[in-house]
Structure formats: C-alpha cells, structure tokens
Write a structure and sequence with these properties.
It contains 10 helices and 7 strands. The protein is α/β, with parallel strands linked by helices.
Length: 316
Amino acid sequence: MPPDVIHCRPLSSPLLQFAPLLTIQAHENQPPSQKYCRETKRMNLTKKKLIPILVLILSVISILRLLSLSVRTSSSSSGLSVMSPAPQNSSQARNKVASYASGSSKPRRPPNTALTNKEFKVLSDLIALKSPCNLLLFGFQPQYLVLSLLNAGGTTIFLEDDLDKMSKEIANYNSTRAYKLGNNEPAKEAYKLLKHARQNQACAPNPILIQKSKCKLALKNLPAEVYEKNWDVIVIDGPSGDSPESPGRMATIYTAGVLARAGNISDVVVHDVDRMIEKWFSWEFLCHENLLCSKGKLWHFRITGHFNSTTFCLPE
C-alpha cells in the first residue's frame, strides 16, 4: 500500500552531501511540515518491517516449546516401559537362563552387584572346562544359575545369608542346593579379625580341623557335605559386605582358603576385589603367588592342596 501521507516529498538522495552549498541551505530551510512528513514515513516503514520479524520470532518460540514438550512426553513413556517389564512365569525364566547359557540372550542384572559380561565369561569358561565338578558358591546372583546348568552331572551348592533371594524352584533343580550362610561378622571388624588370624596358630590352613577350629574366622556351622567334599571351584561373592554394618566376607575368604587346600587343585574366584576387605583377605589367605588371572573386579586363584602347611602364603 502507498504511504498514508501522500503529499510528502521523497527522501533526499545520499548524494545530497556532495550537492552545492545553496542546495543544502535550501533543503535546511524547508517548511517544518515537510520535515515531519519525512520522519512519519520513516517511522511507518520501520514499524512495518518490525511486525513481521516479531511474528516470526514468536512463531519459532512456540514451535520449539511444542517440540520440547513432545520429546519429554516420549522419553518419560519409554522410561516407564523399561522400568515395568511384563511378568514372566517360571518356564519362561528357565528358558531365558538356558538361552543365556548358549549365548543367545542375556538376563537383566542389578547394577553394581552382578558380574560384567567379561567377568562372567572368565567364570563360565572355567566351569565349562571343569564340568562335571564340585562347585561351591558363597553368595547368589541370578547369573550363577547358568553355572549350575553348565555343571550338569556335578554338584552345585549355594551358601547365602539371604535365602529369600532364591526361590525353592530354582534352588532345587539340576542337583543344586542352597543353605543359609549365617554367623558372619560385620565388615567393620575386618582389621581385628585379620590381626587375630596373624597372631593365632589356630588359624593355620588345616582343612581337617576346621570344624573344631578356635580361629574366629572359621565357619564351623556349615552343612557336613561342605567339609566332606573336595571342591574343584569355589566362588566368593557373598555376603554383601557393602557397608560397615553388613556381614563381611572375611570368614568366607578364610574358609575358602582352607577348604581349597583339602584337594589336589582348587580354583577360587573372588568378586568385588576393588573393595579393601576383599583385596586384603585375598592376599592374606589365597596368596599372590596363586593368582592365575584377573578381569575387572574378579580375581582367579589356583591353589594346590597342602595338608601339613602351617602358613597360607610363601614367605616374601
């Protein structure tokens, strides 16, 4: 549309500054009404340019807000679907464990407690190599049911301080048995118990006398078959030991070190060696010279039986 004030004269050309002095003076002496018309036209043109720009900015802001809202909605709905998996019956659970053993799928694991894929491969390869064997596990993770499947024809025993973590159905298949561990000192007593073991001859590695031992670290109330069998593989992943007040693994590592010396050769695998207690007691009772390999937070020891030994480790 043409400007509202049609009688205004057109704006002077930028070349006006090069015009003669008389022309400039004539321009300055123009009536005030004409000057006002030029200013009004400049303001109108400025407003007309600003309005579309403002409309465009507001439109972009509205679109961005809508996109942000849709992204939040979709992410929250997907998060709910992950947190709420569909329930599975017992046959489906067994099929899932079997498929994990064959490598076709992997069960969901709780964070910071279960073995990583690489750690679990070390352990599963060991069981597959030694199967059928006598397998003793201190602690329980759903992953370890795969080890029981791999150990078909052998004996698998779980010693767990919290039997509620294991249902009767999965604890009694494939010659697998579970017993309550119990009688574990809190983790905060680790240093006192280590000092006691170093100063007391009753804590020498004698598997024959462990049930009558006066060593405070000896687990003396386990099922009889735990003491009677020669264990090919011992896994230490319990009790929890994740706080000063929770049951520590001091006694389980010591007892595993004693039981491992009852046979010819025993493999002892310790999880969570990034923690101080697991590291201290593994060095003390499983020994650096017996360390075969390490992967992540997993240490694998191979121990040769010595009935008459009075010390766990070779002198440095």
